[in-house]
Amino acid sequence: MEALPDTPPKSGQPATIAGVAARAGVGLATVSRVVNGHPNVAGPTRERVLAAILELDYRPSSVARNLSLRRTFVIGVVVPFFTSDSAVERVRGIVAGLEASPYDLALFDVESPDRRRRAFDMFGRGDRADGLLAVSLVPPDAELARLEAAQIPCVLVDAPHPSLPCVVSDDVAGGEVATRYLLDLGHRRIAFVGDKPPDRFRFRSSRDRTEGYLRALARAGLERQPGYVRQGTQSRHVARSIAEELLRLPEPPTAIFAASDTQALGVLEAARDLGIRVPDELSVVGFDDIEAASYVGLTTVRQPLFESGRRGAELLLQALAGEPFAVRTETLPLELVVRRSTGPRKR
Amino acid sequence: MEALPDTPPKSGQPATIAGVAARAGVGLATVSRVVNGHPNVAGPTRERVLAAILELDYRPSSVARNLSLRRTFVIGVVVPFFTSDSAVERVRGIVAGLEASPYDLALFDVESPDRRRRAFDMFGRGDRADGLLAVSLVPPDAELARLEAAQIPCVLVDAPHPSLPCVVSDDVAGGEVATRYLLDLGHRRIAFVGDKPPDRFRFRSSRDRTEGYLRALARAGLERQPGYVRQGTQSRHVARSIAEELLRLPEPPTAIFAASDTQALGVLEAARDLGIRVPDELSVVGFDDIEAASYVGLTTVRQPLFESGRRGAELLLQALAGEPFAVRTETLPLELVVRRSTGPRKR
DNA sequence: GGGGTGTCTGGAAGCGCTTCCATGCCGCGT
DNA sequence: ACGCGGCATGGAAGCGCTTCCAGACACCCC
Question: Which of A33, A40, B39, B94 ranks highest by number of CB atoms within 10 Å?
Fold first, then answer.
């Protein structure tokens, strides 16, 4: 790799391959060969071209190259960015996984349904990205069909789909483990704070975690308490007010399992506001193990967020490399991390 | 806006403008006109074209269009993604600011210097993005020159530059405010935990905050204590061990000002590990006011992170729209947020 | 010495779009 | 009736690159 000059030339328009060719006194094809490291270019010729490139501060137009090659060297990442801290951590994993590859990353936040539609719309053409990574949401089938038609591979992270490679964790099991842990600590009045049921695109993790929760209760022979399952949005504040309601119940829970750490943090806040001591009077378990969890000492179900992104990127890269990839869902391990927010039932 | 069919046609390759033209029995130019909403297309013709588009599930190739138009409709965002939570929040602001625009966002994490070089390298050509947003770092001058030559506007968020529009906050003032607050509480032994001095690209916020800290001390007539200014990386763990050292000093500080909330959280952890009570025995002030700060009750200097991103996007959009934009730095207000991590000196 | 067999090179087509320009047509005014 | 402005339309060039293909040449072996 040659060092580039530190000051680009004054020229108005950026140099094109034709300019370089002219300057070096060779044909376009030859310049292209040199640029792309093809063999069969005579030493001296190569030198001349290289010199011209340097002098002109030439850099190939990626757009033109894309058009010609029918590849973009970008990987699209569709992610509900705002909604959760965990999504960010996953994206970090993706970035890391792409690090060594020639692919760039185009990020699409799809908070609004409109934006979501638009995102998939663009990728559908197959010329915005060579591959797609969807985080915490499953693309509508119509778009999936388009993607397939356009031959652009897609892998899902934290979302299941029968005909796509997915990297997920077993949310049902996670919910069950968390709840069982609470049961083992002697708790019987265990409430749940989660998200609203998923819409057509959105994560179903919360639902699955609810299921795990219910299953654990059932296995323990406990009846489901009607007011104990609450649903809001993936936000600390909403979780907080929900938790307040819960804690003001005539028979308040002695433990709360939240479908995400973000929500668990809201629960902790509510407890603090109400002067309820954690874990003495209330045990709280979250889900995800985001950064914040460790410094507030939240017991949680750790999910390898970063790793899920990294692995997703890896799978996509493989697909892009033409390796036959199994269309199967890969389940990452969950792990209960016990910290200071849980303890035995005391009353 | 017509509703698109829910199932794309089975065809192998995506439809091109030529296909649509043939199908509708018109010329390419006409299809292009219809697609781009030009006037001067007869009603019935337009209908036929529209029908063909629907039938073929045609969507224009953005690459081809980019090449022809010499625009990409993407905005590049260069950001040290991993290093700080605050950067993420800024990116969120950027996303929000771009929401209503036709521009997409391409995110470049530039953790490694290599990656950084590469990022600017690609943008230098001017065909990867129509505009550039650099977060918390200042691009090397050589690249800036290229950007200018390629006519691609660039605005900096959380980084200063004499010849570019910037959205910053007054870090020196912020550092001073935080420190003065501590002084007012009666503290005299005030330590500082910050980042290493900036390299050629990297944020200088920490340095400026240090300066504010020193200035406040000086104004109070306090001598700078040699071991009290420590520098590590923008990471909780590093800050934590630095803080431990600090707190084990023969004359430990009674207050610590950290250059970022992330680092402040590390400091809090160190205190907890050492059994030092906050705020009774140690006051801690952070900087940024990230989410986490509020739920651990960290006193901090609030910086409008989200807003800085949003505003940066706004400025860039203006530039892109051809509005003459003043090359001046815009300083966003800072605000001291007092929470539970600070209190009067007690010993 | 002639016909391979290679290496090196340039021309030109093509990627899918936009847009300038020329053409054909209509209706209007005189 | 005829000419002209303007609307509607298609052809073709061009955006900057890759790559197929063919030509030029050198070299080698029989």
Answer: B94
Nucleotide nearest to A19 (CA to C1'): D16
How close, in Å, is residue A276 to chain B by CA atoms?
16
Distance CA B109, CA B309 (A): 16
Are B107 and A109 within 8 A, CB to CB?
A: no
> Tell me: the pLDDT tens digits for A160-172?
888 899 999 999 9
Total Cβ atoms within 10 A of residue A322: 8
At A292, which helix (H) or strand (E)? helix A291-296
pLDDT value at residue A107? 83
DSSP SS3 for B259:
coil
Which nucleotides along chain C are within 7 A of a protein C-beta? 7-21
**Pairwise CA distance, residues B73 & B129, whole Å:** 7
Question: Which portions of chain A are predicted below pLDDT 70?
Answer: 1-12, 81-83, 112-113, 198-203, 325, 347
Work out the pLDDT band at B11, boundaries 50, 70, 90. low
The residue among B286, B294, B245, B229 whose CA lies nearest residue B263 is: B286
> Residue B133's beta-bridge partner residues?
B77, B155
Residue B8 lies in a domain: no
Q: How far is B118 from chain A (nearest CA, A)?
A: 10
Q: How far is CA B159 from CA A117, A254, B216, in A?
A: 34, 49, 23
Judgement on whether residues A179 and A297 belong to the same structural domain of the protein: yes
Indicate which CATH number applies to the domain containing A233: 3.40.50.2300
User: Are A79 and A143 in a shared domain?
Assistant: yes
Listed as own residue / partner, the contacts of A246-251 with beta carbons closer than 8 Å and 24 or more positions apart are A246/A191, A246/A193, A247/A271, A247/A274, A247/A276, A247/A282, A248/A274, A251/A189
